[in-house]
Specification:
This protein has about 300 residues and is mostly helical. It has a three-stranded antiparallel β-sheet with strand order 1-3-2, covered by helices on one side. Helix 2 crosses helix 3, helix 2 runs antiparallel to helix 8 and helix 9 crosses helix 11. The termini are far apart.
């Protein structure tokens, strides 16, 4: 296997940017009219929804969300119940409550304008390193490394000659920063292009190396695409999991009149009563549902 390279030479910037310009998916948050209409708020909402959720599931929910709450000021007065109900089946519903809190914070701290500064973004509820930089880069056009799972996989293969990236680490940002073009506009597009390449070509299970714009310099391809192992933490199966039970509880309350049901009527036929009770208890602890007078309801 060739020695891994730590230089930007392993990533053909010109080839990557040309490929992206010709093949990038037409996604709502990439359109100029989306930015004009919703500003940085639209980018923030889309990034919240895209965390661990496929693009095709996000698009209809994003459109409905921004139609209802096109600005942080519009969303801030909403009740937690309205927010959780609108989140529907996107999964990981705590994101909805975090987004609601972030909207309130944007109104109270920043006069309703999503901040540009990464430190100010990181201070908002539910925003981590990726989301903060994504807003600063993809809406405001600033030069920062934006690193997601797809980006890390492209770097692992093209630069390090590994079949899969290791667990996420702080150094991932530094490595991506080394690869960024100096030009502001190009650096934003480069971030998006790396993510796009990992999402549609350099995929986890079936990479399409024959159409990859980085194929000529890819260390992993040159080594014969060896299986170098995968040390990342595995996500637990959804079917039969506590996550599935939590989702079923929330769905039953979203669909109930007034978003409330007697405790005994919530998943009364669930095959594992203990799991059902754990799901209810954990949702109450997370603030996603409330219990009162032998009733369960979405938060008031």
């Amino acid at each position: 296997m060739p020695a891994p390279s730590s230089t930007a030479a392993a990533i053909g910037r010109t080839e990557l940017l040309g490929w992206y310009a010709a093949t990038a998916r037409d996604l709502p948050w990439r359109r100029a009219e989306f930015a004009e209409r919703y500003g940085a708020w639209g980018t923030l909402v889309s990034e919240f929804m895209l965390q661990q959720t496929p693009v095709n599931r996000v698009i209809p929910h994003l459109e409905a969300w921004l139609h209802r709450w096109p600005t942080p000021e519009a969303m801030a007065p909403a009740t937690p119940a309205e927010v959780v109900h609108q989140w529907a089946n996107l999964g990981y519903p705590r994101r909805a409550l975090w987004l609601h809190r972030a909207a309130i914070e944007v109104v109270e701290r920043h006069d309703g304008v999503v901040p540009r500064d990464v430190s100010a973004l990181l201070a908002l509820s539910g925003i981590g390193e990726y989301t903060a930089r994504a807003v600063a880069v993809f809406h405001y056009g600033d030069r920062h490394p934006v690193v997601d799972t797809n980006t890390r996989r492209v770097i692992a293969r093209a630069v390090d000659g590994r079949s899969q990236p290791g667990p996420p680490a702080r150094r991932d940002l530094a490595r991506m920063a080394e690869l960024l073009p100096d030009d502001l506009a190009e650096s934003a597009v480069f971030n998006a292009a790396m993510m796009e390449l990992g999402a549609v070509v350099c995929t986890a299970r079936a990479p399409k190396c024959e159409v990859c714009p980085l194929a000529s310099g890819c260390a992993w391809l040159a080594a014969g695409r060896p299986d170098t192992g995968d040390t990342r933490r595995r996500q637990a199966r959804f079917e039969g999991s506590d996550r599935q039970a939590r989702g079923a509880v929330l769905r039953s309350l979203r669909e109930a009149p007034a978003h409330a049901l007697a405790v005994a009527d919530v998943l009364a036929d669930w095959p594992d009563a203990g799991q059902r009770d754990r799901a209810i208890d954990s949702l109450i602890a997370d603030g996603l549902i409330e219990a009162a007078d032998d009733m369960l309801l979405l938060p008031r």
